Amino acid sequence: MLWNRWRADNPKVRPDLARADLAGAHLPGIHLGGANLAGTNLTKADLAGAHLPGANLTKADLTGANLAGARLKEAHLGGANLAGANLRGANLARANLAGANLTKADLTGAHLAGAYLVGADLTEASLAGAYLEGANLRGVLPGDQKERETK
User: Fold this and answer.
1) Which residues lie below 8 Å from residue 85, measured CB to CB, with a gap of 6+?
2) Considering 33, 70, 91, 147, which has the largest number of Cβ atoms within 10 A of its Cβ?
3) pLDDT tens digits along 83-121
4) Where are the domains of the chain?
5) Burial track 54-65 (b if 16+ CB lie within 10 A, e otherwise)
6) To which H or E segment does residue 35 belong?
7) Segments of 93-142 assigned E as strands
8) pTM here?
């Protein structure tokens, strides 16, 4: 992929794609480590196996996105919408997912060691085989319990 070659030749450049519309984009294996993708529309984008360590995806819309096997170590996903996203086997170690919407997300086998999930919505999310050692799950409640507490 031409982009990945350019990134390898320019490792100090931090791409700024904040608020870009990349809905439905086909970007498997793309290298966007450290990139600014805050507020970006990545609805139903294919980011399988993407390299996004340290990327800023704060308040990004990743509804229904394919992030299977993606590397999101230390990424910033606070307030991001990951409803229905495929995160099977993704590496989210030490990622910030505070307040993220992970409703019906597939986190099967995901690596979430040390992840910050305070206030995240994990309603109907699949966490089978997920590695959660050291993850901060404070304030994470099942959907029906969350509704009772807000009434």
Assistant:
1) 62, 63, 64, 65, 66, 67, 102, 105, 106
2) 70
3) 999 999 999 999 999 999 999 999 999 999 999 999 999
4) 1-151
5) bbbbbbbbbbbb
6) none
7) none
8) 0.90
